[in-house]
Amino acid sequence: KGTKVSLTIDRNGQSLTFNMIRDEIKVSSVELTYEKATSCDSCLPAADIKINQFGENTNDEWTKAVEEVAQKWQKKEISGLVLDLRDNPGGYLESAVYIASEFIPKDKLIVKQESTVTPSHDYFSMRDGKLLDIPVSILINQGSASASEILSGALRDYKRATLIGEKSF
Questions:
Q1: φ, ψ (nearest 5 deg) of residue 64
Q2: pLDDT tens per residue, range 16-38
Q3: Is residue 141 within 8 Å of 87, Cβ to Cβ?
Q4: What is the mean pLDDT of residues 125-151?
């Protein structure tokens, strides 16, 4: 970070040089948008939350997005939620459990971690979520792995979400 670098790129036989300074790039792990069906002018939009990874800041970013979505759901300004987990490589197991707790009542089993070398560990929903009754569709593909599969599997098993897309990783 802070050091200079010079990049030379060959574009159609022409060399282009770019001088820049290295810096840390912070990418949001949670992105919230609202999408309206193009074929229906009178339909309410759906909240669309894209989770890019389950990382260090995911829970805080998730909480902010959910506050807004919950308010719009209570005011009947949205029709439901699309949770986009496509190409999400996973990350922190605890974040998957935290997010699942938004949709599943408290103290329900989310995932059981078993190992031949350590004791088994059960992870339960940890709080009363704010989105217990919102309709949810989850988008997955072959790039949805690890924590993405735990979250989508738990919501499917509790009949809280419909999975749409391809078989996950």
A1: -65, -45
A2: 999 999 988 888 999 999 999 88
A3: yes
A4: 96
Band (pLDDT 50/70/90 cuts) for residue 115 is confident
Output the six-digit token pair for 95: 């974040």
User: Encoding tokens for residue 15?
Assistant: 């060399």
- Measured distance CA(140)–CA(154) in Å, rounded: 14
Phi (first) and psi of residue 96, to 5 degrees: -60, -40
Q: How far apart are the first and last CA of the chain?
A: 34
Kind and range of the H or E run holding 139: strand 136-140
Q: Is the pLDDT of residue 159 over 90?
A: yes
pLDDT of res. 54 = 97
- For the chain, the residue count is 169
Residue 44 is given by DSSP the state P
Query: What does the alpha-carbon distance between residue 60 and residue 81 come to, in Å, rounded to a whole number?
Result: 19
Q: Which of 49, 45, 50, 70 is nearest to 132 (CA)?
A: 70
CA 52 to chain centre: 6
pLDDT of residue 39: 85
The answer to whether the beta carbons of residues 115 and 144 sit under 8 Å apart is: no
CB 165 within 8 A of CB 140: yes
> 21-25, 63-67, 126-130: which has the minimum mean pLDDT?
21-25
